[in-house]
Automatic annotation (TrEMBL):
The lineage of its organism: Eukaryota, Metazoa, Chordata, Craniata, Vertebrata. Residues 759-770 have a biased composition (Polar residues). This is Pyridoxal-dependent decarboxylase domain-containing protein 1. The keyword Cell division does not apply. The gene is Pdxdc1. Keywords: Decarboxylase, Lyase, Pyridoxal phosphate. PANTHER family: PTHR42735, PYRIDOXAL-DEPENDENT DECARBOXYLASE DOMAIN-CONTAINING PROTEIN 1-RELATED. Belongs to the group II decarboxylase family. Its cofactor is pyridoxal 5'-phosphate. Residues 499-604 form the PDXDC1-like third domain. The keyword Oxidoreductase does not apply. Residues 387-493 form the PDXDC1/PDXD2 second domain. Residues 33-44, 771-787 have a biased composition (Basic and acidic residues). It comes from the Eukaryota. Residues 33-52, 681-787 are annotated as: Disordered.
Length: 787
């Protein structure tokens, strides 16, 4: 490029191009330089730091810009998609710098140059996109062109609008027709720009019975137009879609053109599918867009050109009205908006332009053909291979679901089960979309929420492929990632309803419906003091759920347990993640209920024990005080005198028994220690009540993780393997109970019912008891013996 710059006669232009190249290299290479802080002069507090002194050099300024773009070294790098700026991108950026330089020319040269740039760019765009005999308006904001077109239509239909203004519109209100599938906020923007009330907008519904559900209902539109004419309104403009913003559907533009010509309505077309007009073969419904009154093109994202203006092509014969509407301007700065596109189109050439658009269409077709071979993936536009947009979602028919309710999408009378299934699919699709965006960022996948179809994933290569450099291998990688996530999605969706039913059938557990959670489900334990009607924080519930979460994570299962996202409700809940394998839901719910109940009981036992011990100490002090008083009465006053008492005790010793008190934690009562001092052993005391045994824990095979179904598909096993498996389970029960097989037969004959096997906690307690026999007695010396 340096050799090319030397051939330029204008030294200023050559120097500017050289500086721009150096600046681009510095910003792209990511090299940072450290400013020398030594020798700086004292600065004033009134002048901002960057403006102090005699200014800064270009290197320092570019270094500051680079730090603002990419962040400091201490900040963690963010995984954001960065557009691939190639040589054509540098040419587009050069156009913005050239515009500032060209504006310094004298007026005559500037007028000739801007007129040449504007006329050339307009002619090239008309030829490329097959729009004959039209003009072009270049604008930065994509919707600005449509606002100018609406203003032109108002001036064309209302001859006295320039003189009378709003009075003309008040007597005969204009109507702008928009499809229900149009971009959100488009009607609000038009009314704000034109100063019209929202009542001037008319939203046309999409097809409900026949045709695509994202195409404008032409029969209903015709009825709306006739009703507006009868009420004294003026149908002004219709906005049609050649590739809707959501799913890329194209309206029947040919039929809409006939309807607009019949009633004198201005027809404007916009959409991503207009890019395919540059290809060799164009479908007839889209080819009708070339006959419309105006269309808006966005060549920047289509061709991967950064900071490129949008273009609105229109047909009108009155230059005065276009000037009043703002579509044409005599200012050179407005005409110079076409300069970046003028340079980029020449750099790419026709083959480069068509090649990029064709490559994007091939990517969409490749993905669509591959998705048809993947199970549980629904494509919203299977019949339109020419569409450059692919919208798909994960979908699975659950057993027992009624297809009658799904035949009418968006029905307000759908049962609760269908609503839960819709929420489950939306949450799973949202999770799948986020996973695919992270795994395959080069595809530029986006997650969209559609009113009828729910949460879907959209692949629009015309808007992202040129900038990201998407290739066919990226599409294949996307398909591979989808197939790898399908087992987790299908398994989780099948277990969600079973988990809900199991939780609702379990006491003290409450099922929490969270439509945004993609896991198996959300459950909350209801303790004794739980108030469901209150939304206040529950410290006791938070303590129980925190302990429950810790216990569940210690099980080392394949499931993930969390307290939920940050935006969760005030009440504490346990969020169960996704499952990639079959899970025993009954065991999972049973474990949650038993563990939470044990945590609550242990917490209450500790609180009750503290109160009982406090009362026991007070009672022991009272009893010991009474014993001291009785001892004084029994021994007499003389024995309490130091010298006399010793003499009396020597001649006549008192046979007093040693009395004390012990506190029985099991019975919660005070007992005398007289039996202990007489027999030199601790008394048996009160027999503690039997510990309530928990629910029988499931016996697992060696290496089997918790909550796994061990006998799934057991019908296919042979009889011999089934018997041997049952014998293995019986041996495991015998080992856990501490009995030999012979003793088991003696104690449990065939006629007698077999006693339930002890739980894991009871087995551990028996082992501790055998290792520490001195801890067998239930009583504990709670107080020091007093004489």
């Amino acid at each position: 490029m340096d050799a090319s710059l030397e051939k330029i006669a204008d030294l200023t232009l050559a120097e500017m191009g050289k500086n721009l190249k150096e600046a681009m290299q510095m910003l792209e290479n990511g090299q940072r330089r450290i400013e020398d802080e030594n020798g700086k002069k004292p600065v004033s507090e009134d002048v901002p730091g960057p403006l102090q002194g005699s200014g800064q050099d270009m290197v320092s300024i570019l270094q500051l810009v680079q730090n603002l773009m990419h962040g400091d070294e201490d900040e963690q790098p963010q995984s954001t998609r960065i557009q691939n700026i190639g040589e054509q991108g540098h040419m587009a950026l050069l156009g913005h710098s050239l515009g500032a330089y060209i504006s310094t020319l004298d007026k005559e040269k500037l007028r000739k140059l801007t007129t040449r740039i504007l006329s050339d760019t307009t002619l090239w765009l008309r030829r490329i996109f097959r729009y004959e005999n039209g003009c072009a308006y270049f604008h930065e904001e994509e919707r600005e062109g449509l606002a100018k077109i609406c203003r032109l239509a108002i001036h064309s239909r209302y001859e006295d609008f320039v003189v009378d203004g709003f009075d003309v519109l008040y007597n005969k209100k204009p109507v702008i027709y928009l499809s229900a599938a149009a971009r959100p906020g488009l009607g609000q923007y038009l009314c704000n720009q034109l100063g019209l009330p929202l009542s001037c907008l008319c939203r046309v519904p999409c097809n409900t019975m026949f045709g695509s559900q994202h195409q404008m209902d032409i029969a209903f539109l015709e009825k709306l137009i006739k009703d507006d004419i009868e009420r004294g309104r003026l149908p002004l403009l219709l906005v049609a879609s050649a590739g809707t913003a959501a799913v890329g559907h194209t309206d029947k533009i040919g039929r809409l053109k006939e309807l607009c010509e019949q009633h004198g309505i201005w027809l404007h077309v916009e959409g991503v599918t207009l890019a395919t007009l540059a290809l060799g073969y164009v479908s007839s419904p889209l080819l009708a867009a070339t006959k419309c009154d105006s269309m808006t093109l966005t060549p920047g994202p289509w061709l991967g050109l950064p900071a490129m203006p949008a273009v609105t092509l229109y047909t009108h014969d009155d230059p005065a009205l276009t000037l009043v509407a703002g579509l044409t301007s005599n200012k050179p700065a407005d005409k110079l908006r076409a300069l970046p596109l003028w340079l980029s189109l020449q750099y790419l050439g026709l083959d480069g332009i068509v090649g990029r658009i064709k490559h994007s269409c091939q990517l969409s077709q490749r993905l669509q053909e591959s998705l048809k071979k993947v199970d549980h993936i629904k494509i919203l536009m299977e019949g339109e291979l020419s569409s450059p947009v692919v919208v798909f979602r994960f979908f699975q028919e659950l057993p027992g679901s009624d297809p009658a309710f799904k035949a009418v999408p968006g029905s307000s009378v759908a049962p609760a089960a269908v609503g839960r299934e819709r929420d489950s699919c939306d949450a799973l699709n949202r999770w799948l979309g986020e996973q695919l965006k992270q795994l395959v960022p080069m595809c530029g996948l986006t997650v969209v929420d559609l009113e009828v179809d729910g949460t879907c994933m959209r692949f629009s290569p015309l808007m992202t492929a040129a900038g990201l450099g998407t290739r066919g291998e990226d599409v294949d990688q996307l398909i591979t990632c989808i197939q790898s996530k399908l087992p987790t999605l299908t398994c989780t969706l099948q277990l969600r309803e079973e988990f809900r039913q199991e939780v609702e059938g379990t006491a003290s557990l409450l099922y929490v419906h969270d439509p945004n959670w993609p896991g198996i489900g959300v459950v909350r334990y209801e303790h004794a003091n739980d108030d469901n009607s209150s939304l206040k924080s529950d410290p006791e519930g938070e303590k129980i759920h925190s302990g429950l979460l810790k216990k569940l994570n210690e099980l080392e299962s394949d499931l993930t347990f969390t307290m939920g996202p940050e935006y969760k409700s005030t009440k504490s809940c346990i969020y169960i993640g996704m499952a990639s394998d079959d899970v025993d839901i009954s065991e999972l719910v049973e474990t949650i209920a038993v563990t939470a109940r044990e945590i609550e009981e242990n917490s209450r036992l500790l609180e009750n024990m503290t109160e009982v011990v406090r009362k026991g100490i007070q009672e022991a002090q009272v009893q010991l005080q009474k014993a001291n008083e009785e001892r004084l009465l029994e021994e007499g006053v003389l024995r309490q005198i130091p010298v006399v008492g010793s003499v009396l005790n020597w001649f006549s010793p008192v046979q007093a028994s040693q009395k004390g008190r012990s506190f029985n934690l099991t019975a919660g009562s005070l007992e005398s220690t007289e039996y202990t001092y007489v027999h030199k052993v601790q008394g048996t005391g009160v027999t503690p009540p039997p510990t309530p045994s928990g629910i029988r824990s499931k016996q697992r095979l060696p290496g089997q993780k918790p909550f796994k179904r061990s006998l799934r598909g057991s019908d296919a096993l042979s009889e011999t393997s089934s018997v041997s498996h049952i014998e293995d389970l019986e041996k495991m029960e015998q080992l856990s109970s501490g009995l030999e097989p012979s003793n088991l037969e003696a104690h449990c004959p065939e006629e007698a019912p077999r006693a339930p096997a002890p739980t894991d906690s009871q087995t551990e307690a028996l082992q501790n008891k055998a290792q520490h026999p001195e801890d067998d007695h239930p009583q504990v010396e709670g107080l020091e013996r007093l004489r």
